[in-house]
Amino acid sequence: MIVEVQPTSPAIEHLSFKTLRADSDSAAVNLSSSKEVLNGARVVHGGILTAPLDSAMGHAVCEGRGDLIASTISLSVSFLALARRDIKVTRRGRRTVFATAEVHGADGTILAEALDCFKIMKEQTEISGNPYGMSV
């Protein structure tokens, strides 16, 4: 049974991934392998895979901490093999949290590893600026 752990955001809805579970130590996210998330080689695009990795680690960092939110400071992903699905996350920390995540294939092989660094904030009002006004 899939249970939404946190309200979805427009980005999460657009990329069609769901948080299956989250606690203070780990989280699991499922990413749909629909054709919209595939690259030219017909496997999940690395950039698309990075979003659920970051989101899953954020869920694990914030779960059970009340109204705290986590904002990504730094994110590094190593792609070790062609990734298809399954994300698992572990973490520990306080105000600045380092989290790690792995993407596992159906056979359990590690396909990608990620390291994320988050700043933990007490309330959403600590975020300055207009997030929708950002340019890349």
TrEMBL record:
| Superkingdom, natural source | Bacteria
Molecular-function annotations in GO: thiolester hydrolase activity
Q: Residues in domain Thioesterase?
A: 43-110
For this entry, the protein name equals Uncharacterized domain 1-containing protein
Q: Which organism was this protein described from?
A: Primorskyibacter flagellatus
